[in-house]
Amino acid sequence: MSETNEREVLLSVKDVDISFGEGKNVFKAVQDANFDIYKGETFALVGESGSGKTTIGRAILRINELSKGEITFEGKRISGKLSKAEDREVIRNIQMIFQDPAASLNERATIEYCISEGLYNFHLYKDENDRLQKVDKALEEVGLLPEHKSRYPHEFSGGQRQRVGIARALIMEPKLVVADEPISALDVSIRAQVLNLMNKLKNEKSLTYLFIAHDLSVVRFIADRIAVIHLGRIVEIAETEELFAHPMHPYTISLLSAVPMPDPIIEKQREAIVYADATEEKTGPDYAMREITPGHFVYCTPQQVAGYAKIAE
Amino acid sequence: MSDIIISAKDIEVQFRVRENYLTAIRNVSLDLYQGETFAIVGESGSGKSVFTKTFTGMLESNGKITNGSIMYHGQDLTKFKTEKEWAAIRGVKIATVFQDPMTSLNPIRTIGSQITEVIEKHQKLSKVDAKAQAISMMERVGIPNAAERFDNYPFQYSGGMRQRIVIAIALSCHPEVLICDEPTTALDVTIQAQIIKLIKDLQKELGFTTIYITHDLGVVANVADRVGVMYGGQIIEYGTVNEIFYDPQHPYTWALLSALPQLGVKGEDLYYITGTPPSLYNKIKGDAFAPRNPRALKIDFEKEPPFFKVSDTHYAKTWLLDPRAPKVEKPEAIHNLHEKIARMTSKGGAFHVGNE
Description:
Radius of gyration of chain B: 22 Å
Structural class of chain A: alpha/beta
Helix content of chain A: 25-40%
Order of helices and strands of chain B: EEEHEEHEHHHHHEHEHEEHHEEHH
Mean pLDDT of chain B: 90
Shape of chain A: globular
Number of helices of chain A: 13
CATH topology of chain A: Rossmann fold
Structural class of chain B: alpha/beta
Low-confidence stretches of chain B: 348-356
Shape of chain B: globular
Number of domains of chain A: 1
Largest interface: A-B, 50 and 53 residues
CATH superfamily of chain A: P-loop containing nucleotide triphosphate hydrolases
Largest sheet of chain B: 8 strands, mixed
Distance between the termini of chain B: 36 Å
Oligomer: heterodimer
Strand order of the largest sheet of chain B: 6-7-8-3-9-10-12-11
CATH class of chain A: Alpha Beta
Strand content of chain A: 15-25%
């Protein structure tokens, strides 16, 4: 695991707080978020609804403002005030895939326009011919055909629409793709196709993904590392198999125990563990992300470290 | 086996869409046994919800049962014409819990009034008695401080609490059959675990029969006694939960299990089903899954297969079970399913932690 230290950090989230509202009504959606995403990995952010996972994703895309901390991309700050040129650079390098492909495509625009929109906005093509070629190539890469260009989103199935959503992100040649629950709205069989496609594109184009999801079985298949977020706080970060083998934070343990397994013998015996402190935050001035074993971080006090380290043995 | 409580025979449901007819359910038969939990799995559009809506007369207005019978205590539910006839069944004897608790509750009325309304209407109790019963029902489904929260509005409840209320309403008339239509799909996993447990506990206590509609095979493994797999408007295989998971016979069931992300190997492609489900506007010839089935036989495209018996409880609608059919093995991915899943859980994670 020592190689982790040598890997190139693509995106770094440092001491980030994000709050909504003002004065008395201020609501802290995310507190003290700290993590790095390495180049070429799939980093998953897992949590329940309202935990702040999407808020972090949107903050990286500069949609939500930070109230504290900073986010850097390739060593350069991308949070807070940026010049117009820098802002455009960020948008080009970081693209997003949304949950609901039906809601994220313009119903009145053809697929050709949907996919070219980014090219138009950034003038990323030499001439009409070049643009059409790029659209054809993007369609081909996601397993659609050039003749689909002239169709409208409603003519496609859910899985195909999600492919269009991926194609329009890819055509910008991004370095980081934020995928916010990209398969939650899809059926089991279609889900597998989209996951395979995302993996294929990752290898071919050396993409990096921030994969935001709530389904742990999917995350286990696709992610290299996982961060678990609860009530706006990241409580645990570890490599995927390490997290499943040695979950440490009580919330992670409860979350993993709640996932139903597709096996009747196991499932009939399984007892979900209730997270006793679900509503009250386990936090205080002594709490911070601490490394328990190499690459495995837990949000805890210095006193708790030894106890967590025992779990790993 | 215990007594049959509902017996559906050769049900066909058609929807009129503009000038066309869409056949959503194609000759489905199902016997439901007293006290069991029968899970229906399938992808969206396979007809799981439409089929069970025929049990409570809740088909959309452009839909019609065009063939078959549903026998329930000597009455044929398909013959019901008026709302008055349904009033004695729907919500009283056969109740439904829907997916989204926000849309099944009225946002501008208090929780209490929505529960007592059902009790007053169906049990003819006085206001005071109805309120007392409603509060005890709220306590039973796990609402803390039920009496105080009686006058709250739905928005003051969390998603899981709202679903508990929907369950309380559904059970307030002590139905014999509870249809749960994706009851936990809109909820978080930790809440899902609580709601599943609640439904199971209540079933044990009150003895109702459950039909559980879901697309999540993990949930099926947890709740079901028996499972029916639906595809293209038909049940294509049914059996006990162990038979369906460990000894599946229909190629579609194979495909569904093979596509489980839990069986995926890192760095390799996950199994997926090519193509799309059949259009239900057209008449389907042969086995509906044949065009997407790499192992399809010639006859699959020509003639619809009958149900073949695998065991007393296990039947599958595939020509592969015909004695004349060539021997086709189920895919490698789902061999030793239990060992595979057990291996991945014993390495740590959910199951392991639970037993420490």
